[in-house]
Write a structure and sequence with these properties.
Shape: globular
Strand order of the largest sheet: 1-8-7-6-5
Mean pLDDT: 89
Structural class: alpha+beta
CATH topology of one domain: Alpha-D-Glucose-1,6-Bisphosphate, Chain A, domain 4
Number of strands: 8
Helix content: 10-25%
Order of helices and strands: EHHEEEEEEEHH
CATH architecture of one domain: 2-Layer Sandwich
Number of helices: 4
Distance between the termini: 39 Å
């Protein structure tokens, strides 16, 4: 197993970050790494995800949602072709801070092809680019939180 993890401080509420993170229809407007997220963000539902790692060929896959904890955590797990060949468990964690939140972006990879396929540097750069874009989108107020919720 190999894990890639990045984080960023965001000057916003957990709710504001969650709103942007779970609005898959808007991903093409702001997200340079995950350029497509379609499907219902509910446990065991299948999503369609398109990633565009910097300098690498993009890839579309269909993971299953594994965790949905509003304003705290979202995770999905996908496989390339068949399970245990190249699997990835992607996770976003939103941690409340005294001021703002810490956004953690991680993926744990497993399977026999991981040593041959995984480009850790490109994935890390993609995570960092997404984190920065998420921060910019949330902090500029483009994320609209339903105050009645």
């Amino acid at each position: 197993m190999q894990t890639i993890e990045t984080d960023i401080e965001i000057d916003a509420t957990a709710e504001a970050v969650w709103t942007v993170l779970t609005d898959g229809a808007a991903y093409p407007d702001w997200n340079p790494f995950i350029t497509r997220l379609e499907g219902d963000i509910e446990p065991e539902r299948q999503l369609t995800i398109r990633i565009e790692p910097p300098g690498k060929r993009g890839m579309t896959f269909k993971p299953r949602v594994k965790a949905v904890e509003p304003n705290r955590r979202l995770a999905w797990k996908g496989s390339l072709l068949v399970p245990n060949v190249f699997d990835g468990r992607h996770e976003f964690v939103i941690e409340d801070r005294a001021e703002g939140v810490r956004f953690v972006h991680r993926e744990t990879f497993g399977g026999v092809l991981v040593p041959l396929i995984l480009d850790k540097d490109a994935i890390r750069r993609g995570f960092e680019e997404m984190n920065a874009a998420l921060k910019a989108r949330v902090e500029t107020g483009e994320a609209k939180v339903d105050e009645a919720a």
